Amino acid sequence: SIHADVNMPPSRGVLKLRFNQDQACFACALESGVQVYNVDPLTEKGRIDFDVVGGVAHVEMLERTNLLAVVGGGHAPKFPDRNVMIWDDKLQKFVYELAFPTRVVSVRLRRDKLVVVLTTEIHVFSFPGPPRLLSSLQTQPNPRGLCELCPSLDCQLMVYPGSQKGTVMIVDLLSTEAPDRASTEWICHAHQHELSCLAINRPGTMIATASTKGTLIRVHNTQTRTQMAEFRRGSDSANIYCLCFSLDSAFLCCSSDKGTIHIFAVKDQSLNKKSRISWIFFPAHTTPLTS
Questions:
Q1: Is-contact 199 249, C-beta < 8 A?
Q2: Which pTM value belongs to this model?
Q3: Residue-averaged pLDDT of the chain
């Protein structure tokens, strides 16, 4: 088997990293397979080797269960990038395979749903068990695969880019399944430029957005449908890679191609004086990460 390690050359590098829903673990999609880590303490919890899965473009965990969704990619994939494979780590094998007509750009999981994002479509399936198609949504071109699910059992919100530039579509997945349930779709006008990043907090009460300009981050309340905060990352444009709420929704983290991490206080915004962490040196026993 070919195993990934932190000193791997770029051709065998990390293609995607995703935390699970409670942020206690994360999975790495690698040119050489999949590796899953526990956060605290930082230890490897499992892997899918290259000879089993090949290169992987996307991986998504389901909480701390034995199920992972995997999409092939990289220089040497074993499976097409149009297929979503469900891996059962307990059985050590793939248990389901879903094929699509075009490339899968992201996959999202929650306790009762599997969501597959294509460039202009989103497909919602029942999960776990044999996936059953519940609904399909047409979208504007979404090459970044922007889509997030609320993980709470009490809230089934899904957010993704709207039809107009800079807007977010917020949909209650229950309304897409039950024809007699009133639609709760809401279009949030978040930015003037195209969206580059989305996040939803664990209870589903807040969404955070950033645009391709990368200077402002806005937070909206999904219950009152109003903007509740605006944070400035900087004055120059940046490519924002990730937005993430803390588990208690008190803080919002932002990373970008500027080599900095910004942490903003959402609930007590008076704390927002200096919230930037800049990695300016590396101890001798560590190796700088490159994207």
A1: no
A2: 0.86
A3: 88
